[in-house]
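Contributing: when you submit paired examples, paste them exactly as shown. First protein:
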Amino acid sequence: PFADQDVRLLERFTEVFAFAYDRYLELRERDARNRELQVQNALERVRAQASGMQQSADLEAVSLTLLETARTLIPTIVRDFVIIDQEGEGQDYWTASLVGGETPTTRPRGQVGVFTAAQTNAARADGASYFPYTETGGPHYDDVYGYRVFHEHGWISFGSTAYLADTDVGVLERLTEVFGFAYQRFLELAD
């Protein structure tokens, strides 16, 4: 058995620990709320730019804003950002990149040969919201963890220097959903 003094000390330690843990939970909840506000504001910025598109060429600016937003929200996003439209025999695509710390730029829209992405297409057909993959031995980074996040017309491919937590993949899914709206607007303006 413990002496009364030892019991009081353990009780006091338990009280202090419980107080500290409650405070930790409060701070964690506050951080989660702040993060959600940050994500919502970023999504609204992209959504507003997409809503303001006046011509199909405006998709380029929306794409760059989306990449910059992804990079702001998830700093490990570094590499090619690809938007794929799977209609027809090939795919239309745009890319923007932060490789090597460059300012994001886009490459011209163009038809490319059928993208060899059988696993990606199979995941999409199975109803997955994204397809993760890894590339090794790139010119700028040893490993790139890729996430092809699907939208109605194709996917957006994000590259990260670190494996992403589910919450970060959720952010990419939400960004892709907003991009789906922008891409639909692009198709309407292109007609």
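Second protein:
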Amino acid sequence: EVSCLLANGAVSTYFRMRRVMRTATVGLIALLLMTDLGVVSPAVAEEPTAATWPGKKSEWRGYTRYDFPFAGKKAYVVVPKEVRKGRPWVWRARFPGFHAEADLLLLERGFHVAHLDTGGMLGSDRALDLWDQFYQSLTADHGLSKKAVLEGVSRGGLFVYRWAARHPDRVACIYADTPVCDFKSWPLGQG
């Protein structure tokens, strides 16, 4: 539950992090099992032509990546070789490329991977407003699923849990790897 991960001052940081890591691991395993067992349909959807993705086309670990400006920020989308029906996608909040194993596994299973660089905004309301615009663009303009998989690495936790609380109906699940969930621990260094 989001509230448990955001504020639980009585639990030590050590035990909180162990619980978060267990939850993240179980979440990733559940997501991969859902795709492998057919809970998320394995049927291939029709991929729009490359012209529908803006920006500079490049190669990222064997997949096609499109880098483009969005609302004054850097953004990208990595396109799977075969798109899964329903056009699922992973939204990487921070540190794109860091421990990209999960992204690669999901790309293999037909998920898109997206990132909007709002890193210095620390999950603020302004950042979440940009996230709302990015979500609208990817879902309405590019046909990605209305439910995103949120991926929060480190400070990415400040974004994914706040955005999930703001829009629980737009979240398929959350995968978090050592997420920061409290400003007292980072950037203030008091947690």
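If you have annotations for the second protein, write them as plain sentences, like these:
The radius of gyration is 16 Å.
Strands lie at 56-60, 63-70, 73-79, 89-92, 112-116, 148-153, 171-177.
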